């Protein structure tokens, strides 16, 4: 009779404590700490009902004593309780208390359904084999990535030299554009002077077909000698160049003398007399329509050259910033491999937009071949993630920003692009530059633990 009573007591304890030597839903060391009175409610020591130390009689008694549910690891009495699946993963994992005895096999060994009629299949060994295979593949990938990294690091010096050459070319272009801008300004001012020196001839009307023509001596010969092309006028741009060349500074005194004389005769109403005695001056072959048109042409050209200079100046500033980011004041995360990676830009097409990522510079978006705008320009590193800010203005007035998460891979490529919230993009990229020897060591140690080898 005594043996029967002892059996009933052990059976009831097996439900509460689970397998012999363990407490259901708790880590392996929980029972040992419980018996030595070192288990309290919660990791920080928070407790209720004046209980600082848990005892065996209140653990898994289907009554929630601790606010954090730590006294009920094997039941669902506490809404915030946690059941520990010992054999899931490498070090086990926690399951919400609501998943205990709910008819769903969550733990690989089915231990979370210890008091439910469902029969759970133990697939822990199969899961472990899959983890071992995944780890072996990651180790192989990391090893090959480290080999590719060696070649990528060699591109650092070449990239530095290319940036230097690009800077020289841009400086040369900026200087050339500025010189052309100054020359156009000189030509524009000369046209302004000519406009005064060649007044409107009220007493002499030029024929329409004589307008916008220079003397025949300045018209180049053509292969076609037909009458139609014999007196063909030059395109106005070339005419403006010819006009600028003909009215060089040495001719200015004659132009101004003639201008003063014309104005004097006009004021005195002696136009017909001037028409009989006037010398064949330069102004006789010029007309104000041409001068005005050339003035506008040179003005537009000057404006465009100035815009070109400013555009190249912006590119120069970007290059200077890139040189500073990569070589002069690199952050700790900016490794030699990432410097080599930044020598190129990378594209990703999601069938709607085309994205172009230029590491440490900018991220652009295109649609149907047309540039939409910047999704961000290089800002900084944050927790190993690249941040790009100050992009285009979106519809609701927010400024575009992006982030790039790098992972170990055999090549530099964009894996995915996602607009997580309005005007905020997340990019995932693989690169050998993200492969490290410490990463390889961690994977190899994890493989040893998972496979059970020391």
TrEMBL record:
Gene3D superfamilies attached to this UniProt entry: Mannose-6-phosphate receptor binding domain
CC annotations in GO: glucosidase II complex
UniProtKB keywords: Coiled coil, Disulfide bond, Endoplasmic reticulum, Signal
Listed GO biological process terms: N-glycan processing
Domain MRH intervals: 292-437
Stretches assigned to coiled coil: 132-169
Signal peptide: 1-22
Keyword Coiled coil in record: yes
InterPro entries found in the cross-reference section: Gtb1-like, Man6P_isomerase_rcpt-bd_dom_sf, MRH_dom, PRKCSH, PRKCSH_N
Coiled coil keyword on record: yes
One Pfam family from the record: PRKCSH-like
Entry-linked PANTHER family: GLUCOSIDASE 2 SUBUNIT BETA, N-LINKED OLIGOSACCHARIDE PROCESSING
This protein's name: Glucosidase 2 subunit beta
Originating species: Rhodosorus marinus
């Amino acid at each position: 009779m005594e043996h029967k009573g002892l059996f009933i007591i052990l059976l009831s304890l097996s439900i509460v404590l689970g397998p012999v030597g363990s407490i259901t839903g708790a880590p392996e060391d929980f029972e040992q700490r419980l018996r030595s009175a070192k288990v309290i409610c919660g990791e920080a020591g928070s407790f209720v009902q004046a209980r600082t130390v848990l005892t065996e009689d209140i653990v898994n008694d289907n009554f929630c004593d601790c606010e954090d549910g730590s006294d009920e690891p094997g039941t669902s009495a506490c809404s915030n309780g946690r059941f520990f699946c010992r054999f899931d993963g490498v070090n086990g994992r926690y399951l919400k208390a609501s998943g205990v005895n709910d008819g769903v096999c969550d733990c690989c060994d089915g231990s979370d359904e210890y008091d439910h009629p469902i029969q759970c299949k133990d697939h822990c060994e199969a899961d472990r084999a899959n983890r071992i295979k995944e780890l072996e593949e990651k180790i192989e990938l990391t090893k090959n990535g480290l080999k590719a990294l060696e070649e990528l690091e060699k591109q650092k010096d070449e990239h530095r030299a290319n940036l230097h050459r690009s800077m020289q070319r841009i400086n040369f272009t900026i200087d050339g554009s500025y010189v052309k801008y100054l020359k156009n300004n000189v030509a524009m001012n000369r046209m302004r002077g000519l406009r005064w020196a060649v007044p409107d001839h009220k007493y002499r009307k030029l024929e329409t077909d004589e307008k916008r023509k220079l003397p025949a001596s300045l018209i180049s010969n053509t292969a076609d000698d037909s009458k139609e092309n014999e007196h063909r006028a030059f395109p106005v741009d070339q005419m403006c160049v010819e006009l600028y060349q003909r009215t060089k500074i040495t001719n200015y005194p004659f132009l101004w003398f003639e201008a003063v004389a014309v104005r004097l005769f006009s004021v005195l109403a002696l136009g017909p007399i001037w028409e009989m005695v006037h010398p064949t001056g330069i102004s006789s072959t010029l007309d104000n329509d041409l001068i005005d048109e050339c003035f506008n042409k040179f003005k537009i050209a000057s404006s465009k050259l100035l815009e070109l200079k400013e555009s190249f100046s912006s590119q120069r500033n970007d290059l200077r910033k890139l040189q500073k980011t990569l070589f002069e004041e690199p952050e700790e995360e900016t490794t030699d491999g990432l410097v080599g990676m930044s020598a190129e830009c990378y594209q990703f097409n999601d069938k709607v937009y085309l994205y172009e990522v230029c590491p440490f510079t900018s991220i652009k978006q295109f649609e149907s071949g047309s540039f939409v705008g910047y999704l961000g320009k290089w800002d900084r590193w944050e927790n190993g993630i690249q941040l790009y800010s100050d992009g285009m203005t979106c519809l609701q007035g927010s400024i575009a920003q992006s982030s790039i998460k790098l992972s170990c891979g055999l090549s530099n490529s964009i894996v995915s692009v996602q607009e997580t919230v309005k005007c905020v993009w997340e990019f995932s990229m693989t690169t050998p530059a993200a492969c490290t020897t410490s990463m390889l060591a961690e994977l190899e140690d994890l493989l040893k633990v998972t496979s059970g080898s020391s």
